[in-house]
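Intended use. Records such as the Transglutaminase domain-containing protein entry shown here are meant for training and evaluating sequence-to-structure methods. They are not intended to support clinical decisions.
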Amino acid sequence: MVRWSRDLPVALTLIAMIGLAGEALGRIYADPLLPRLIWGAAVGSVAVGVAARRLPSWLVAPLSVAAMTGYTLLALQLAARRADLPDPLGALVADAVRNGIPRLLTSMIPVEAVPDTVIVPLVAAWLTGLAGTEVAVRAARPLLGYLPPTLLYAGAVYVVGPNADQAGWLTVAFAGAVVVGLAATGRPAAVTPSRAEHPVDPDDTAVPRPPPRSGPGPPPARRPAPPSSSHSPPPSRRSSPPASAAPRSTRAGTCSRHRSTVSTRTP
């Protein structure tokens, strides 16, 4: 659900940008067939890209090209019927592929929507939708994904040139679609709780508490306190003289008394 809520605004923005590029180019056409076909190409290309976003990237392009081929054939057949062209569809498609770009640039204004003047805008619009969806939806980079539709719109304005009125409201709508798409996909800033909402206990800052237990198991072992903090050192004792010192002093005293006695008895 979260994925769809983020991808849907991007997809709608891409469709709007490509469709507005078709509206800008359709100002030099004689009927509104081309803008309608461009809107259809925008919806089809973006829908295929969004639906295949979970598939491998190497598989998305062939699927989209196959869908583009089918849609282009239907669009060329519709344009040939509206222009009352008697040629078969295969010949019309081959001629449109060979001469699509020269006839689009050299046709008289207003341009008639025939296969020769329709195939190039259709293919460009579909490839733009494919590239924009791959970058904006699959790669999750909307700002970079809006670059292909912007280039398509600039190319449409360049092709029209001074041959039509100024596309003022189209440009404003194009810029508005980009702004809305970026605003819808913006991520809100994370809100951090303030200290007033969660007051801090002064005891928590003074004494660190062990982390809470997350599951069954023995309680965490406590680190034993150092011995110097719980036991005082034993009192110092004065060392006693060696045992052999007392007999030596007694023997020395006896010798001195004996010498004094001998000295007094000598004449």
